[in-house]
């Protein structure tokens, strides 16, 4: 009975990857999803489940059957005593944040955007910052999975424990994530303070910064020594904001996009743009106070290409200085600002880039001013080389050039994940081109 639409074009948020699914489904129940899987099995089709479609890679693409989970977005249970919430996999975190706050609860950490689905963020290992905080999948205490055979599996530390360790960061290849249970914390407000510094100062006092602020991160402006340090910490002070349309939009968006577009004809301007905008927008102290999710989230206005690898935290200084030196030695290689540097606690999730080590994530970007791609190959390869040299592991949502051979070296538990995947999906129903590179 379930109806699939033909002719739908899927594009990710940044419009950098897309595909043309033969049939596009928006199921409203588990029975409908089962029907879709039956149909896929009969017609020998693959299936890709998507949430918010935000991943900056082809991880969510398929030309076979696509299941968009937006209509399976209910909050199923709030357990106030345990401070846990159980939701359907398709719920956007933006809706969950609001629902949780009605119950005096919140997620302890969030990424930069919330127009992403609960099952989607855990699928790729979304992270934020804070050395006492793990990546978002560490907040998951249970989930249910509908497998390729149509079986529903409940998973947690105590039930199907192996599948749970795999499914907390599932890559979309183990089945359809129907529900997720998150461990929450009492609702809280955050005080954000951003202030200017230098790369030398931050790298020389990294431990101090990490201790001083619970959610510490910094932005480095390539082709310069400039850094914007950002501290975010729980507070009881009343909300206040220093947002300004003029500086945030007129200057920080419209003027910047225009100048970045001009720089596509004169690449050497990028160096000047990075310094000029640091001086304009980041050279004085700025403070904001709001409910936690409004501070964790910020508006990512520019469509962009992005890479984000996690390296062992003790390699932060060496790796960043190598990237800086590489840019200085290759004047033709340009890098847009910022390089965003964040931190996460080590964990035990098999495919987590932070598996068994505290990590530093180093996020590089190249904007697409007015949709125009800017050459980035040299920068991308140089960055990947440095990350690999320091034992890096790429963010699963973001484009990278790694294949199975690399992942076997990077992840001690990779064989365990593969054997769970092969058991749950022996015919590869949930694979796509991206995942073939990971597993073959
Ligand atoms: C503007 C922007 C800001 C971002 N900020 C951050 C950030 O701060 N930190 C960070 O780490 N990342 C960040 N990202 C990346 C983003 O968090 C991840 O790409 C995340 O996976 C997106 O969630 P989604 O719901 O859009 O997932 P999608 O891109 O739709 O899917 C991701 C994966 O999950 C699978 N999946 C989704 N739902 C299900 C389901 N129900 N069952 C089975 N599989 C499923 C898909 O098959 C796919 O493999 C950002 C991306 C953008 C565009």
Automatic annotation (TrEMBL):
<protein>
    <recommendedName>
        <fullName>L-gulonolactone oxidase</fullName>
        <ecNumber>1.1.3.8</ecNumber>
    </recommendedName>
</protein>
<dbReference type="InterPro" id="IPR006093">
    <property type="entry name" value="Oxy_OxRdtase_FAD_BS"/>
</dbReference>
<dbReference type="GO" id="GO:0019853">
    <property type="term" value="P:L-ascorbic acid biosynthetic process"/>
</dbReference>
<dbReference type="InterPro" id="IPR006094">
    <property type="entry name" value="Oxid_FAD_bind_N"/>
</dbReference>
<keyword id="KW-0256">Endoplasmic reticulum</keyword>
<dbReference type="InterPro" id="IPR016169">
    <property type="entry name" value="FAD-bd_PCMH_sub2"/>
</dbReference>
<comment type="similarity">
    <text>Belongs to the oxygen-dependent FAD-linked oxidoreductase family.</text>
</comment>
<dbReference type="InterPro" id="IPR016166">
    <property type="entry name" value="FAD-bd_PCMH"/>
</dbReference>
<feature type="domain" description="FAD-binding PCMH-type">
    <location>
        <begin position="17"/>
        <end position="187"/>
    </location>
</feature>
<keyword id="KW-0812">Transmembrane</keyword>
<dbReference type="InterPro" id="IPR016167">
    <property type="entry name" value="FAD-bd_PCMH_sub1"/>
</dbReference>
<dbReference type="GO" id="GO:0050105">
    <property type="term" value="F:L-gulonolactone oxidase activity"/>
</dbReference>
<comment type="pathway">
    <text>Cofactor biosynthesis; L-ascorbate biosynthesis via UDP-alpha-D-glucuronate pathway; L-ascorbate from UDP-alpha-D-glucuronate: step 4/4.</text>
</comment>
<keyword id="KW-0060">Ascorbate biosynthesis</keyword>
<dbReference type="GO" id="GO:0071949">
    <property type="term" value="F:FAD binding"/>
</dbReference>
<dbReference type="Pfam" id="PF01565">
    <property type="entry name" value="FAD_binding_4"/>
</dbReference>
<keyword id="KW-0492">Microsome</keyword>
<keyword id="KW-0285">Flavoprotein</keyword>
<comment type="function">
    <text>Oxidizes L-gulono-1,4-lactone to hydrogen peroxide and L-xylo-hexulonolactone which spontaneously isomerizes to L-ascorbate.</text>
</comment>
<keyword id="KW-0472">Membrane</keyword>
<keyword id="KW-0560">Oxidoreductase</keyword>
<dbReference type="InterPro" id="IPR030654">
    <property type="entry name" value="Sugar_lactone_oxidase"/>
</dbReference>
<dbReference type="InterPro" id="IPR036318">
    <property type="entry name" value="FAD-bd_PCMH-like_sf"/>
</dbReference>
<dbReference type="InterPro" id="IPR007173">
    <property type="entry name" value="ALO_C"/>
</dbReference>
<dbReference type="InterPro" id="IPR010031">
    <property type="entry name" value="FAD_lactone_oxidase-like"/>
</dbReference>
<dbReference type="Pfam" id="PF04030">
    <property type="entry name" value="ALO"/>
</dbReference>
<dbReference type="GO" id="GO:0003885">
    <property type="term" value="F:D-arabinono-1,4-lactone oxidase activity"/>
</dbReference>
<keyword id="KW-0274">FAD</keyword>
<dbReference type="GO" id="GO:0005789">
    <property type="term" value="C:endoplasmic reticulum membrane"/>
</dbReference>
<dbReference type="InterPro" id="IPR016171">
    <property type="entry name" value="Vanillyl_alc_oxidase_C-sub2"/>
</dbReference>
<keyword id="KW-1133">Transmembrane helix</keyword>
